[in-house]
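Hi Y.,

Following your request, here is the sequence exactly as I used it, all 390 residues.
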Amino acid sequence: MTDPNARTRHPLVVQHNALVNGRFDLTTTETRLFLAMLAQIQRDDAAFVKCELRVQEFLDAASSQNYGHIRKVLENFAGRLITLETLGTDGQRVLTQRTYSAIPLLARADYVEGEGLLVLRFNDELQDYLLQLHSNFTKAQLAELMKLKSAVSSRIYWLLREYATFGKRTIALEELKAILGLSQGYDRFNNFRARVLERAKAELAHTDLPFTYSTRSKGRTVTHITFLFKPVGPASPSRALPGAPAAAWEAAVRDAGVSAKSLPKIQQQLQAGIYDERYIRYVLDTVQAKAKAGKVKNEAGAVFTALTDAYLLEDYQKAQQAAARTKRTASSAATEHQRRKLISKLEESRNSLNIIQTAVYYDEHTRPAPLAVVEAEIAGLEAQLRQLLS
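Below is the corresponding structure, written out as tokens. Let me know if you'd prefer a different format.
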């Protein structure tokens, strides 16, 4: 048996947005196992490898000595199914006709009793959702996720992290229950509020994603939950697009009420180069402002028309040209912006360095590799900062 610490655990964990929004239910222990497996995936991995984890990391002293309990944990974890959106052959979302698949989470799970090891391997059907992701993905700091005590809070953290630069996520109550795998005992909203929303709010208050929430109702029945949190990114306009995933404009457009059937036409406009994603942001901001002023009654229809007919494109281009002229006459401001951006990145890298240096899930075997990577990032950012200020 190889050294269980042979593969480096990364401070960042990543998964496709389809998996973030997948429908499944894990226990707290299973969630910690899942995160530990994510942390062992290397950026250039082309296939899944076995993840070797020590039982003592995930079970208390008594449980880790009870073979019957370990076997039960393993059997339950190995039997977990995930229902998630089926991706196309290129690993991208299919906008025209969405289908969903139920996929086992693990290919197999073993326990090596004499060595106290769990040997786990992801199902190969999940490769497009976890390996070599270049777009439509969400990343999170492992240390932030490890602060959470409940599996449901962990799932909600991921759902909000997907919208990190948006600062807001509205989701239908029934859809949220389905994503979290909740059914029995949550028919009454007061139960859901107390056992899910308030608990997640209390737990996430100690992470980098504290949130508040509001509800939308039809009659006396709550239909939607809106999560509000501080946007993360260089800008936070009223309708910021979720910037990390390449196709994240889709979420913002759909949040404005545009139907899924309309998305392919908008995508064609983007691919043809008629406009870029910044024009979509401009349309959303403009239409929303007009709707608040009472000048637009059908916000979804106005957004759809502006994106398909591009009738706001001339105004957008004029605004871009004006911004460009301002930028040319404000080089000192641009330099200051770049300086702040570099300082922000440097602070993030130093935070990662601190995590690697102090986190208990690293040891003398696993710490050197990520330490060297982050130290190199810090050196590069410091060099850029010196060059900018010279």
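The beta strands are 12-16, 51-54, 81-85, 100-104, 106-112, 117-122, 137-141, 168-172, 211-218, 221-229.

Thanks again,
Q.
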